Every structure is written in C-alpha cells, then in structure tokens.
Amino acid sequence: MKKAVCIISGGMDSALGAKIAQIEGYELIALHFNYGQRTEKRELKSFRKIVKKLNCLESYEIDLDFFKQIGASALTDSSLEVPIDGVEDGVPITYVPFRNGIFLSIATAIAEKHGAEALFIGVVEEDSSGYPDCRDSYIKSMEESINLGTKDETKLEIKMPLVHLQKSEIVKKSIELGVPLEDTWSCYQNEDRACGICDSCRLRLNGFEKAGVKDPIAYV
C-alpha cells in the first residue's frame, strides 16, 4: 500500500487531515512534535488517542527543545502572555517562527526512510490565525524544494486537504468522517479544561457554533 506521513498536533484540523489520508487509501505514519508549547502534555495525550483510533502503521514523537530557547512566541515563552481579547491583526504573538517549515523538513526525512509518497498537514489558510507558514502558496513552494533536495526516486506530494475550509466546515467534515473530536485539543493555555478565550479556542468554538454542533470537550 501507498504510505503517507501525517503531522498530527492533537488538534481537530490535523486529526481530520489524517482521517482523510486514511480514506484515500494511505497507510499512515503519524508524526507529533513536542516543542515546549504550553499544552505539550495535553497535545501529546490527544495525539496518542488519535493514533490508536486510526490504527497507524507507525508513529513518531519528536522532541524539539530549541523552540523554547529561541522564544519569540507566546506558545513557547512563558514571559509572553497568550492573547485573550480576540484575534490580533497581522501575525499574532502565538506564531512560532518557521515552525511548519521545520516540521515538514523532519517529516520529509521520515518519509524518505519509509518510502512514503505523501505528507499530510492540517494547515488552514481561510479561517486561521494569520500564520504565514499556513499559506497554500508557502506549502506548495516547500513541496518543490523538498523534491529538489531529496533522492531522485523520492517523489513527495504535500497534501493540505483543509487549507481552504472554514472552521465550521472542518467540524462538519470531522463528524461526517467519524473523527473523534472529543479526543482533540485546541487550547493554547490550559491542559485540563480549555480556557475558551484564547485565539485557538475562539476559532474552535465559533466553528462549532456555525456548524450548529456542541463542542464535546470541557471548557472552564
């Protein structure tokens, strides 16, 4: 069977992306990154639950400690406050510098090892937080660079099936395909009960509201 490396954060976007890969007939190689984010333990717990239900061929949990050393993001630097007063204009302080570029580079190395044909990433451009590394054009340029920098026989396609979806569409699609939304986590701040007021919680809750569905996770 054809293989795909799926980057799974533990959130509902990447969980849906992995489910779509499975439906498309790929054997899944799940990949998760612990990079010193505030909710690292909770995201890892979600990742493991999602992987178990997807019956993945193999899974990797990669530790990237240098993101905390670099800082510059409220997700990895405890001296910076996570915004709770609405989505910011421009690139928000929760942006982790070039995170997806680094994630995709590591995913490529794993894909070459396994002879995978695709990388799946759950980036969302239309209804996201304004992160530059979630843009369709950026991911496509990475695909070109990856194929220039790997073995001639390596032909990788980066698939981003959610990139032009609204969050409400992601909720509906997840329910349609049986994605375990109760196992996913989106909150930037808390690991027990989601705060409901950070940027990511607001986007998630707004998506559920527009979809006319109750979010199954617990909030403060």
Blueprint of the fold:
Elements: E1 3-7, H1 12-23, E2 27-34, H2 40-54, E3 58-63, H3 66-70, H4 99-114, E4 118-120, H5 136-148, E5 157-159, H6 167-177, H7 199-211
Parallel strand pairs: 1-2, 1-4, 2-3, 4-5
Notes on the protein architecture:
It is a single chain. The chain is an alpha/beta fold. 39% of the residues lie in helices and 11% in strands. α5 (136-148) links the parallel β4 (118-120) and β5 (157-159).
Tag the structure with descriptive keywords.
alpha/beta, 220 residues, Rossmann fold
Chain-averaged pLDDT: 96
What's the architecture, going by CATH?
3-Layer(aba) Sandwich
The CATH topology is given as Rossmann fold
The CATH homologous superfamily is termed HUPs
The SSE order reads: EHEHEHHEHEHH
**How much strand?**
5-15%
Strand order within the widest beta sheet:
3-2-1-4-5
**Helix/strand-derived class?**
alpha/beta
Largest sheet: 5 strands, parallel
Number of helices: 7
Q: What is the CA-based Rg, rounded?
A: 16 Å
The percent range for helix content is 25-40%
Low-confidence stretches: none
Please give the domain count. Answer: 1
How far from one another are the termini? 44 Å
Total E-strand runs: 5
So what's the overall shape? Answer: globular
CATH class: Alpha Beta
